Amino acid sequence: MDFMGTKLEDIIVTLPFEDGTSVEYGVYSYFKVNNKEYFAMLPLIGKKQLDFSKSYQLYEVQKDEEDNPIVLYIEDDEEYAIAAQYFSNQMK
After folding, report:
1. What is the pLDDT of residues 29-83, one digit of tens each?
2. pTM, entire model
3. Which residues contact 30 (CB under 8 A, 6 or more apart)?
4. Which of 29, 64, 79, 82 would be a feasible disulfide site paired with 40, CB 3.0-4.6 Å?
5. Could you count the other beta carbons within 10 Å of the beta carbon of residue 31?
6. Residue 82: enclosing H or E segment and its boundaries?
7. How far does Cα 51 stand from its chain's mean position?
8. Distance CA 13, CA 77 (A)
């Protein structure tokens, strides 16, 4: 599966945390729900291997003015629940 012409396995997202640390995530899945786009991501082991022993993280994806992906935390609980339910159904 691709996102804007890039293979999902080639997309690496570095998420910074409030404590100053950061974790690199790989994109497992890309999907659309209610006219919004989302990534389901997992932490990486090494440079490209997804860590399937961890929980999936769902983030909204938007595009900047140069069509680069911007990953956004889903703040609304209802929106997160809808995205999580859709992703869960896709995993079955």
Report:
1. 999 999 999 999 999 998 889 999 999 999 999 988 988 889 999 999 999 999 9
2. 0.86
3. 1, 3, 8, 37, 38, 39, 40, 61
4. 29
5. 16
6. helix 77-91
7. 14
8. 22
Query: How many other CB atoms sit within 10 Å of the CB of residue 58?
Result: 19
User: Which amino acid makes up residue 65?
Assistant: E
Q: In whole angstroms, what is the distance from residue 21 CA to residue 5 CA?
A: 30
CA nearest neighbour of 74 among 86, 89, 66: 86
Residue 86, judged by CB atoms within 10 A of its CB (0-12, 13-18, 19+), counts as: middle
Looking at residue 29, its pLDDT comes to 92
3-state helix, strand, coil in the chain (%, to 5): 20, 50, 35
Report residue 78: phi and psi, to 5°.
-65, -45
Q: Which pair of tokens denotes residue 70?
A: 């911007």
Tokens of residue 46, six digits: 């090494």
